[in-house]
Design brief:
Elements: E1 4-7, H1 17-22, E2 30-35, H2 47-56, E3 61-66, H3 70-80, E4 84-88, H4 95-104, E5 108-113, E6 131-135, H5 151-163, E7 169-173, H6 181-187, E8 191-194, H7 196-199, H8 204-219, H9 223-227
Protein name: Ribulose-phosphate 3-epimerase
Enzyme class: isomerase
GO cellular component, one term: cytoplasm
Length: 228
C-alpha cells in the first residue's frame, strides 16, 4: 500500500473547522482526535462535531478516540460519519467484540497503543483489525516531540503483521514531521498522522504532498516493504 498522510484537525483552527478540513482535501484521511479529559488530560470534541465535519468535507474521517468506555461510544462515531474508528486497548473492555462491531457498522476498525503498552500481548488480536496505531508521543496533547524509542516497537509490530500475512495498516501519531517521517517509514509505518507539520505550514496541501513523497521514497527501499 502506498503511504498515507492524515492531517490532524487537533492542530487546526477550531473556529474554522469546515475551512480547515477543506484546506487539506488532498490528504488521504482527516484525523480527528476525540479526548474526554478522563482517559487523557484534555478535552476536545465529540459526536456532534464529527457529524458536522462529515458533512463539510469529502475527505474520509479517521477518528482516534482517546476516551474511557470506547465500547459504549465508538459505534456512535461510525454512525456520525467516521470511516475509521480507533479505540485504545488500554480503555477497551472487550477489544475483539468492539472491533467487530465497528466493522459491522461499516467502518475500519483500529486499535491504538500508548507508548508504554507492548504489542506482543495483542498479537492474536491483529486479524480482527484493519489498522494498528502506535503512539509516538503520550496521547493527550498536540505539538509534542517525537519519541525515537518507539521505533523498535514499530519494527516489531511490522514483523508481526508480516508473520501473519495481514493486510493491516500501521499508523503512527505524534511528532510526525519532515524530520521524523522517514524513520517511521523505514521502521514499518505506512499511515502517518501529522498535525502542526501540516496545519502549521504556509501551504498545507504542499506539506501533505511533501510528507507523502518522503515516505514513498523510503518505503521503496525499506527492507520490510521489499520482503512484503
Amino acid at each position: 500500500m502506498a503511504p498515507q498522510i492524515n492531517p490532524s484537525i487537533l492542530s487546526a483552527d477550531f473556529a474554522r473547522l469546515a475551512d480547515e478540513a477543506k484546506a487539506v482535501e488532498g490528504a488521504d484521511w482527516l484525523h480527528v482526535d476525540v479526548m474526554d479529559n478522563h482517559f487523557v488530560p484534555n478535552l476536545t470534541l465529540g459526536v456532534p462535531v464529527v457529524e458536522s465535519l462529515a458533512r463539510a468535507t469529502d475527505t474520509p474521517l479517521d477518528c482516534h478516540l482517546m476516551i474511557e468506555a470506547p465500547d459504549r461510544w465508538a459505534p456512535q462515531y461510525v454512525e456520525a460519519g467516521a470511516s475509521s474508528v480507533t479505540f485504545h486497548v488500554e480503555a477497551a473492555a472487550a477489544p475483539v467484540r468492539l472491533a467487530r462491531e465497528i466493522r459491522a457498522k461499516g467502518a475500519r476498525a483500529s486499535m491504538a497503543l500508548k507508548p508504554a503498552t507492548p504489542i506482543e500481548p495483542y498479537e492474536d488480536l491483529l486479524p480482527e483489525l484493519d489498522m494498528l496505531l502506535i503512539m509516538t508521543v503520550e496521547p493527550g496533547f498536540g505539538g509534542q516531540a517525537f519519541l525515537d524509542i518507539m521505533l523498535p516497537k514499530i519494527r516489531r509490530t511490522r514483523e508481526l503483521i508480516s508473520k501473519h500475512g495481514l493486510e493491516l495498516w500501521l499508523q503512527v501519531d505524534g511528532g510526525v514531521s519532515a524530520s521524523t517521517i522517514e524513520r517511521c517509514a523505514e521502521a514499518g509505518a505506512d499511515v502517518f498522522v501529522a498535525g502542526s507539520a501540516v496545519y502549521g505550514a504556509e501551504d498545507p496541501v504542499e506539506a501533505v504532498r511533501a510528507l507523502r513523497a518522503q515516505a514513498e521514497a523510503v518505503t521503496k527501499t525499506a527492507a520490510w516493504a521489499c520482503d512484503h
